[in-house]
Amino acid sequence: MVAGFLAVIIQSVLRQGGVAVILSDATEGGRLDLLDFDLNPLRRHTFWTITFGEAFVWITVYGINQAQVQRYISCKSLAHAKMSLYVNLLGLWVILVCSVFAGLCLYSIYKHCDPWTTGQISSPDQLMLYLVLDILRGYPGLPGLFVAAAYSGTLR
What we know:
single chain; 7 helices; globular
């Protein structure tokens, strides 16, 4: 997954002229408003909705998922189980940072011309694949690498 994300990120950064341009576009577009402490639970992305919502998601993934619990039980000791979680956490953070930054790259490239609203794609789910085909078209094999990376991310 990381290889697919890196292919998209590197090409997007080169195309846009640097990381600063992408971050500037995201800030101007209101995509990096990290300090929104509105308590309204109906707002989609605030500090509180993300904190509490993701806490419940990750508790279900790492705390009560049968496959995950069996992995913990198979460890030699409690210390080994904790270490396995810490190693997993590092990998999760890498994937999370890559996916968020790839989303910021997508926004930066299509901020003035949204392929979904212009009818070039039929669903917002197709935005990332459209970006991949758009920016990696000149590199044989790289769009396939991204698709393979996306499919590998769905395997358990």
